[in-house]
Write a structure and sequence with these properties.
It is a single chain. By secondary structure, this protein is of the alpha+beta class. The chain contains 20 helices and 32 strands. Helix 1 runs parallel beside helix 3 (51-59), helix 1 packs across helix 14 (457-482) and helix 12 (401-423) packs parallel to helix 14 (457-482). Residues 1-7 and 10-24 have low confidence and may be disordered.
Length: 706
């Protein structure tokens, strides 16, 4: 890789200059790297650490790329995909609220149910089929044997058929889960496919469930849940009877207590919730841990597989089987890491990825549906869940940064193998996305900021090196792709937003309650992701009839509007408009007494941001924060901790989700010169279609920049 980084820039400069002058249209290749920060990228370019990107910028162009507001991964990539602003894509946050119940739900996709086979009639039909089948077999058999009244001899088998049908019918669910994408707009690859352009699109966020398009292959990205239906549920096994999580486990890592630290220990792998039959509430898979007598290794056995690990070792990919009954099962893939054996067992299980070889009906990881499995067989195992890299366990300090780094490296190796196979194809359009740069930023940014509460001078240089290595690896990937370019090909490299430090949290719902906008009675409640997934109790002490405003998600501020919210207390018209402007002005004036700084940068009215939107859905205001601040995790779920501000001493130390978009620009590199340098991610859609000789299917606000 070092040879590639040092030897390629000269070739790129000569080759890309020829590409810029080429008249014959060739391939259009787009590499997306989540969360790559413009300021850090420019620093590394000056230091000569990104030679391939430097060569690309020299031959073509480089500019900072403004993200959407808010500057969030699903929001920006949905705009990249469709050319619509967040009001038009309907992807405006990670979360949205139900105006009838005030409950949070995911913005990217909607889960529902659909009948399986004949639905509630499955059991009755199975009984009828069993009776009929055995009766029609037994009657002719009895007739051939010259039995008197052969129909009478067929009755007993028919009864047996009824019993068998009753049992088997009980193994068939009446309904199965279904998933519907909530993103609106037409992806540029769909437009291209409809005009005969062959395309491959891999792991772009907000593409689940994968939607087929002409002449195309698509592998879904962010939005694909783990096997449990979560954004990622890791598990931590420990035999330590005194173990207590270092944090409050807001991210809901499964903590599994082991009964012993020697010999054979029976436990289980936490599996999916039983949405098919209801009982038992969760389907687990047995797991046995056998510790060697000398306590230098342990053998794990589950789902018919056994493997032996020493401390610090990862397992191979393990195929996990969760049996609902003899007829129905769910399967997934995951890896274990044995952290320690002495003095106590510490075992880590990464989130379980849906099985591309056996995805349930309606759970489309790819389009065509079979493609994800074909890649798994031919290229090798890879993570299928959308949030592929586990940031939750390191955030709770259950694993160290070395384990996190190993997970990142394994994930990137697998995704690079996919990219290499795609580059060998003949499709004219290739779009490939990498998430790891964002995950590194979230976990390691504290090393970049000496003022961060979690900054440790003893480890800062090492952690900063890990983060920079991720950017260097991005440069290697760009070099690999650039080496395959032919005359007429075009290469674009971009990120959806940048990064900044998160030193302090602002509990905005607590502020709303203290200032009389959100009426409460009784103690506040701390929320976590498990409440969200399990549809737990939210807002338990809020008196909605006396409340005028509330916050949910990462920046979404809602007016409790009469006629829209079920218990709306604010009249439409003048009262609504006056309250919005009052909230915007007062929030921008808030001062953190510990720092003297304004935690809120700007508060936008929704019509200031979005050309068109659904007023029933889109937040009435969008709150953005100043550098160093973010709205708290509790604020995202409607929680109201005591106090307005809190130091963020977490490992999750870098962020972008509620920051003013001007503070977190992304990057854009192209192999052709740029017409201008004031660019936004909404401009990418018409630019890419223009390169393909196509026009957007609807009026868009973005403008081509090539």
């Amino acid at each position: 890789m070092r040879t590639l980084r040092l030897g390629l820039p000269a070739l790129l400069l000569a080759g890309l200059a020829a590409l810029a002058a080429a008249e014959t249209p060739g391939r259009v290749i787009v590499l997306g790297f989540d969360g790559v920060d413009a300021k850090l990228t420019e620093e590394l370019l000056r230091d000569g650490k990104l030679p391939n990107l430097a060569a690309l910028a020299e031959a073509g162009g480089y500019a900072r790329l403004s993200p959407t507001t808010p500057a969030q991964t699903p929001v920006s990539w949905a705009t990249f995909t469709t050319g619509r602003d967040p009001g038009g894509t309907r992807i405006f946050d990670f979360l949205r609220r139900d105006a009838a119940s005030y409950l949070p739900t995911f913005a990217v996709a909607e889960e529902g149910k659909r009948p399986f086979l004949l639905g509630s009639a499955n059991r009755a039909v199975a009984v009828a089929a069993g009776v009929l089948a055995l009766f029609l077999i037994a009657w002719p058999a009895a007739a051939l044997l010259r039995r008197r009244r052969p129909w009478l001899h067929a009755l007993a088998p028919a009864v047996a058929g009824a019993v068998a049908g009753w049992v088997v019918g009980g193994w068939l669910p009446a309904d199965i889960p279904s998933v519907t994408s909530r993103r609106a707009g037409t992806p540029f690859w769909t437009v291209a496919g409809e005009h005969g352009v062959h395309a491959t699109v891999a792991q772009v966020p907000v593409t689940f469930p994968a939607a087929p398009f002409p002449h195309g292959h698509l592998l879904a990205g962010l939005g694909v849940p783990d096997l449990r239906g979560r954004i990622g549920t890791p598990a931590y096994y420990t035999s330590d009877p005194l173990f207590a999580p270092a944090g409050d486990n807001e991210f809901s890592v499964e903590i599994i207590r082991l009964s012993s630290n020697v010999g054979r220990i029976a436990t289980s792998v936490f599996g999916p919730p039983n949405k098919l039959f209801g009982k038992p509430p969760r389907i687990d898979a047995p797991l046995e841990i056998e510790v060697a007598e000398d306590r230098t290794k342990a053998t794990l056995s589950t789902s018919g597989q056994s493997f032996t690990l020493g401390p610090g070792e990862w397992s191979p990919w393990v195929h996990l089987v969760f049996r609902f009954n003899p007829l129905v099962k769910a399967t997934g893939w995951a890896r274990f890491k044995l952290l320690e054996l002495q003095p106590e067992i510490k075992l880590y299980l990464a989130p379980i990825n849906p099985d591309p070889l056996n995805a349930p009906p309606g759970f489309d990881l790819s389009a065509p549906r079979s493609w994800a499995g074909e890649l798994f067989r031919t290229v090798g195992p890879y993570k299928t869940m959308g949030w592929a890299i586990d940031t939750w366990t390191p955030s709770e300090k259950l694993v160290d940064e070395e384990t996190f780094r190993e997970d990142v490296e394994q994930t990137v190796r697998e995704f690079r193998k996919l990219l290499t196979s795609f580059l060998a194809g003949q499709d004219r359009l290739l779009v490939h996305y990498f998430e790891y740069t964002d995950r590194l930023g979230h976990i390691l940014w504290r090393a970049m900021d000496p003022l961060h509460p979690a900054h440790d001078s003893a480890t800062a240089e090492h952690l900063r090196g890990m983060l920079i290595d991720g950017y260097v690896q991005m440069d290697d990937i760009v070099g690999e792709v650039a080496a395959t370019l032919r005359p007429g090909d075009f290469l674009m490299v971009l990120s959806d937003h940048g990064f900044s430090t998160w030193r302090r949290s602002f509990h905005i719902n607590t502020w709303l309650a203290q200032e009389g906008y959100l009426a409460t009675s009784g103690a506040s409640q701390v929320e976590n992701l498990e409440n969200l997934f399990d549809r737990g109790q939210f807002w338990p002490n809020v008196e909605w009839s006396r409340s005028r405003a509330y916050h949910l998600g990462l920046g979404g501020l809602y007016i409790n509007l009469a006629g829209r919210e079920s218990h709306g207390a604010v009249a439409p018209g003048d009262e609504y408009e006056k309250l919005r402007r009052e909230l915007a002005a007062r929030l921008e004036a808030v001062v953190d007494p510990a720092t003297g700084q304004h935690p809120v940068s700007r508060v936008f009215l929704r019509e200031e941001l979005y050309r068109a939107f659904d007023p029933q859905l889109i937040p009435d205001l969008v709150v953005t924060t100043s550098e160093g601040y973010r709205l708290s995790w509790q604020s995202a779920l409607g929680g109201m901790p005591d106090g307005l501000f809190e130091d963020n001493a977490r490992v999750w130390s870098g962020d972008h989700c509620t920051l003013d978009p001007d503070a977190v620009p992304g990057v854009l590199f192209t192999s052709l010169p740029l017409r201008r340098r004031q660019l936004a991610i909404i401009d990418v859609y018409p630019t890419l279609l223009g390169l393909l000789g196509l026009v957007p299917p609807e009026t868009v606000t973005g403008q081509p920049f090539l």
